Structures are given as C-alpha cells and as structure tokens.
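tool_call predict_complex ligand=thiamine diphosphate
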Amino acid sequence: MNDTTIATAATQKLRFYQKGTFTVGNRLVSEAERAVQASIDRSNALTCGHRACQGCGEALGARYAIDAAMRAAGGNVIAVNATGCLEVFTTPYPETSWQVPWIHSLFGNAAAVASGVAAAMRIKQRPEVRVIAQGGDGGTTDIGFGCLSGMFERNDDVLYICYDNEAYMNTGVQRSSATPPTARTATTPAVGPEPGNVFGTGKSVPRIAVAHGIPYVATATVADLHDLERKVIKAMGLHGARYIHIHVPCPLGWGSASHDTIRLARLAVESGLYPLFEAEYGVITGSRKIRRPVPVAEYLRPQRRFAHLFKTENDRRLAEMQAIADTNIAEFNLLDQEDAAG
Ligand SMILES: Cc1ncc(C[n+]2csc(CCOP(=O)(O)OP(=O)(O)O)c2C)c(N)n1
Ligand code: SF4
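tool_result ok
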C-alpha cells in the first residue's frame, strides 16, 4: 500500500453496516469501537456446554447482553432469571453454564426478586453491584407483568432484559401476548377461517415500559450485536428501572432453519415488523433506520409457523401483516431518507 492509498483509507467514510453491524467482524473498526465479544477480556458469563437448540437466538442474545453488562459494571453483576428456556437450558441443577452470580426466581416474579436483591445491595452499601433480571416473553409480558410494572413504577435500580421469542417455548410453543398475529402455535392452530393467532390481541411491552416514564427503554436484536451491546452498556450507565427487549428467533418454535436465526432477526427489522428504538424518561429519543426495506413476506415465508399465510385464500391476512409493519415504519420513522432517495 502506498501513501496515497493509506490516506484514502484513513479518510474513507465507512457506512456503519460495513463495520460489523450484522456480523461480529471487527477488523474495520478501531479497538475502542470493537464488540465486547471481540475482546479476549470478555467475561464469558454464559459459557459453552449449555443445552440450547442449535441456532437459539436467546442463547446468543443472553451471552452478548450479560457480557456487555459485565464489562460496564466491572464484573459486579447479579442476574435473576425467570423460569423458561434460558433458565432450563443453562442450569440443569447441579450444573450451570453461568459464570456470574445467578438466581433462578419463579416464572412470574423475576422483577420482584431483582428489586429485592437491589434493595439488599443498597442496605449492605454495595453500590458497585448491579442487578439484572431476565426472562422470556411469557415470563415478562404475561405472568411476570405485574411485578415488572411495579419495578418500573417504583423506579427500582434494576435492568430488566426480555428475550422475546414470541411464545412460551420451554413448555412446547404456546401463544403469549408477544406472539404476532397469524402465527401458528400449539394453542393457536392454523385451522379455520382465521388460522393462527388472531388479530387485535397482544401487547407491546416496550411501549408500555416507555409509558412508565422510566430512565431507559430500548428494543434490540441479535441481528445487530453492536447495537445490542451499545444499548446494554448505555442502560448500565444509568440508575433506576431500565428495560431492554431483545428479539430472539427460536428455530424450534418458529419452524425455521437453525442457520437462519440471524437472517430472520434482520428481516424482522428490515420489514418493519420489529422496530428498533430507544426512549428516555418516557420520550422516544431515536430509532434505527431500515437499511434495505423488504416486504413482510420475505421475513414470514421461511418460517413454518406462517406457512398458511402463503396459501392464496390468506392473501388478506398477509396484507394485514404488511399494514402492521407500515404503521411501525411511520410511527418510528424507520426509513432511511438517504437510502430511500439513493
Ligand atoms: C406459575 C408457573 N406456571 C407455569 C410454569 C411452566 N412454565 C415454565 S417455563 C414456561 C414457559 C416460558 O416461556 P417464556 O417466558 O416465553 O420463555 P421461553 O421458554 O420462551 O424462553 C412455562 C409455562 C411455571 N414454571 N410456573
Ligand atoms: S426452544 Fe427455542 S428458545 Fe428454547 S432453547 Fe430451543 S431455540 Fe432456544
């Protein structure tokens, strides 16, 4: 390389997605910008030997989230885990894959247990110890929702992380209030005039968390691990109640190929069905633009839970799914004007 090339390389404007947004590749970024996972000093909080299915998005998300939190807190993290896949596949007692102080709560009370741990640390005058609660969407949006709302409104000093695989996976893929409309689950079969989960049900816990006015709320995805780490580190820099909702594909429950986990997570974002945004004290502060907009069919087609949508008589329902994505795109201003123009 001659001097001119070096100068060009030094001043070349890199688009963010060229710098490892969708992969863990870090070669093009400065050391300070590299992913926590790229560092030999990462804590390996969730280490190998666990029993998650091949391609489990939840295992990947938890590893990145907790390692990022560990870095931000200088290794002083206590994790409280609701019942669910993340607890079952990591900790078949007396074995565990966690290398972090870790407590299994009940299915529905992770937020309350974490609030108690945070109170204990306050009484013991251990401000350096930071508390995380985590669980699946069933444990968060359904059975644990009352405890979570209480943790929010009291502004307890806890970061709650929900790994959203859009159903109760650990017990055999039952519908939760985070299951998308039309999805087939064990309790929403693909039969009858409205096959799969019905429209007009469910809830958006990220939006509900924003409405509590807590210090920080973010949605994240395993398709964008730099962004996920950044949000966890940002949350760990704040005190009070914080909430991060991570979209984690589940090959078993979604009927998808294990090698498609990252691709599907990315398509969920690019279709507009899973908007990435942040909020502070009840106000939306930003959203992540869609780089390459795609129709929802591109995301839904590779998943067997949506197979019935691609029979012609279900065209209307596919259009209704597209309408949900279009509403998200408008609400969170997700289209990158620069890319759209170009
Ligand atoms: C009070 C109570 N009800 C039901 C169960 C059974 N149960 C254990 S894990 C689970 C599903 C967990 O689903 P989710 O929270 O979405 O996490 P995932 O397994 O999908 O990661 C259920 C129903 C339980 N342990 N306790
Ligand atoms: S069922 Fe889904 S969430 Fe549970 S371990 Fe398997 S891939 Fe992960």
